[in-house]
Amino acid sequence: xxxLAPTALIFLFGxxxxxxxxxxxxxxxxxxxxxxxxxxxxxxxxxxxxxxFKKFILLMLRIGIISxxxxxxxxxxxxxxxxxxxxxxxxxxLLIVIDNSSSMNSYIEGKTLFDKARETAKELLEIYEQxxxxxxxxxxxxxxxFTGKSSxxxxxxxxDQIKPTQNYDNIWFNLDSxxxxxxxxxxxxxxxxxxxxxxxxxxxxxxxxxxxYYLIDVGEVINNLSINRLDVLSxxxxxxxxxxxxxxxxxxxQTETNNIPINLLFDNGRVGQVxxxxxxxxxxxxxxxAYPNKKGMLQGSVRLPKDDYLNDNIWYLSTPILNxxxxxxxSSSEQDYxxxxxxxxxxxxNKQLINLELRKQPILNRLFIDDTDILVxxxxxxxxxxxxxxxxxxxxxxxxxxxxxxxxxxDPVYQKYFSNLQxxxxxxxxxxxxxxxxxxxxxxxxxxxxxLNVRKLSNELPEVFSYIKHITKANQKVHLELNNGDxxxxxxxxxxxxxxxxxSLLNLxxxxxxxxxxxxxxxxxxxVLGGTDEINSLPILVGDPKWIILNGNEVRNEWEVExxxxxxxxxxxxxxxxxxxxxxxxxxxxxxxxxxxxxxxxFATELHPNEIVSKQISENEIEILLNxxxxxxxxxxxDLITVFNEIRHGKALWKAFLIFAIILFLxxxxxxxxxxxxxxx
Length: 681
Hints:
Elements: E1 2-3, H1 16-27, H2 38-41, H3 45-73, E2 76-77, H4 84-89, E3 92-98, E4 107-108, E5 111-112, H5 113-125, E6 133-139, E7 142-148, H6 152-161, H7 171-180, E8 188-195, E9 212-217, E10 225-232, E11 243-251, E12 257-266, E13 269-278, E14 283-290, E15 296-303, E16 314-321, E17 325-331, H8 334-347, E18 354-360, E19 363-364, E20 374-378, E21 382-383, H9 385-396, E22 400-404, H10 412-420, E23 425-431, E24 437-440, E25 463-464, E26 466-471, E27 477-482, E28 487-494, E29 497-502, H11 519-531, E30 540-541, E31 546-549, E32 559-562, E33 568-571, E34 579-582, E35 589-595, E36 598-606, H12 619-625, E37 630-635, H13 640-649, H14 654-671
């Protein structure tokens, strides 16, 4: 127990008054001479003891009355975080932190959690003295917006300046940053954090022990369905070809939700719908199938009906539907030249998909591939360092490469260059004089040829007579292998580029792949996968920077980005990186990037997984997190101010002491009343 007005305790000296009167009355005795003492003899000894005990009880009651009244005047309270007399006599620093992340946009009783947090912060500010140094901060991004002493109205205006976002924050890391970076000299340091306390926030090892923490829970979302993920399953994306899209929906409610429509939209037009029921707390997967009807950027979304939290009801999609692929094929001989010409004509007889350039170039010195989407290299006789460097830049900028190895790979002269490109390590050429190796598909992984339109695929796999033995790296996936375990077709990335690597040539002396029905559909798929510039359209988390990779001749164009809300801004390219960096991505939706006023690409922003509403962190988890710290977890309610004051200063006890004094007074009145004894017999 402590006192808000401890100076009033000086009046406790008043208890000496009844004590003094008591002892003075003992000596203030008048002697009276009686003619007879016969009546005194009749008084018994126990009567005398009763009188003395009664006087002692009256003395204690009067002392108790005075003590209770004095204690009442000193405003006693239960011990809180901050003794009341200290808060007025010692300097205090107050840090108010408002969570303005995406999940705070949830609605409860027609009001967002963020609005409730701001209102609560304003109410709590009124409790503090005007001379209290106040810091007001937000979590997204973590920033202190105000520090100082000013009027309540000024502080209120600062709180109103905090805006809700669709971004992600980690409240514990941010809280640690905000409390540890402040230059605080005040001996009393209080931090008020207003949040919804999502479970997915990562914990820090520890928070500053110099602060007292008030964790105010502004509410919890009850009614919410969320889209947790969206994946385009189809790797080949061309007009009028089936596109498969998988989405995962979660029901955070503990009760079952029925007859919920899930819609798939392309360019704001609905192309698919599923109506389903959801068990409480469970996930459910759906696969949509639709046919894109045009080339270019496909912009779409999967949507759920409105509920208490809207940000996780929509998942946006932006993916390129093939236009034309600029394909350059470099071969070392006329025979190879003719083979690839036949392959491309079989894939695209009407020249609608592929812009083809065939080049016979046994020695690769300069590649000239600035305008190339995918490069096919077949059995070069030699390659210069300059060509290796040019190829490396091409791959890092998102170019595709199909490489057929045959002669130079095991040569130690080139091993350094191949290693720099992170190619698999070639060891030696293996030839078989009689018989052959069979090509098989690994059974333990989802290989790249799984969805090819080939009848009896196993019968169309080639027989191999010669190949270059390679050792693959950890990031390289084998899609076709020989029956001795050596790789035949390897898939891996270099920077933003995609590489498909064959360990044998398209030559009947090496294998019979050119005679198999597998060749045409396989090359079609590899050209599409390698030649499609999907790196620029890949989604990012909302708030993260987006890099748009450009070819060297594109840098000097005029570039512009349009946000989902329709706000356009010019972008200055990074000439050194040959790219665009888009930093203002704080909106959920699809951003359009324009080159000279024409659409170049687009990309979607996704809600951070931690901002998809889930259950709140429990008080037990918070207790473990804040072990050893002074904190209180408070649920916002109508009597929050009363509860907060009681936690901060302690619960007022003056009423109890007043009641106690009244009770003692009544008892004293009853005990001290005069009594008449009837001595007549």
